[in-house]
Amino acid sequence: MDTLWFNIVQWLHTLGLHVDGGTARAVGDAAATVTARLDMPSLLALAAALGWASGFRLYAVVFLVGMMGVLGWMPLPSGLAMLQHPLVLMVSGFMLMVEFFADKVPWVDSAWDAVHAFIRVPAGAALAYGVFGADNATMAVVAGLLGGSLSATALATKMTTRAAVNTSPEPFSNWGLSFFEDGLVVAVVWLATQHPVAFGIALVVMVVVSVLLLVVLFKFLRAVVRRLSSFFSGSAKVA
């Protein structure tokens, strides 16, 4: 890398553009950091994080990743560049606030999740797909399938756990779980972008815990499925 930047500086000198060594080294280090952040493990970790976190808080994921790109905290892949658009940030930020408060009200949270049951999974798949985009069609499809599966798993875990917690008459357990999910989404996105390998290990743990929760709370899972079926069948009859 040092040889490469030395050659670039020499070439600029031949064009009459004089760049001191310190500036060249700073630019080189920045470029190396960007390249390291966008290697294959980082891209896979980002795709998995977007899919998993979308199952909990889709709008928060879109807003957080978009702002990270705008602030220069992370170079976004070309397939996710639209998340930095002011209109996308404005809409996702507004919906983030709506979801934040809706998720704190017992049973309203379950209704909100039911409405978004068929939004978060394809959105999680689309975000994961966008990590690779047209640059690598094969990996984009793989990432899309991974993101959709992780989003569905996270969503099923969230809805099942909320169905169990909402049986309690007091609202504090619901609030605590909701705030935990808020923090979890932020932690997942941060860990995936800063420490991809550690995120991979954490993801395996989270998936195992999710499967165990779904098994333990199976009766609540069935109740969620029945509620979703009646909700959408009722909507179909009205239509």
From TrEMBL:
Domain spans labelled DUF4126: 44-214
Membrane keyword on record: yes
Ranges annotated as spanning the membrane: 43-71, 83-102, 198-221
Presence of keyword Transmembrane: yes
Key words, A-Z: Membrane, Transmembrane, Transmembrane helix
Protein source organism: Acidovorax benzenivorans
Official protein name in the record: DUF4126 domain-containing protein
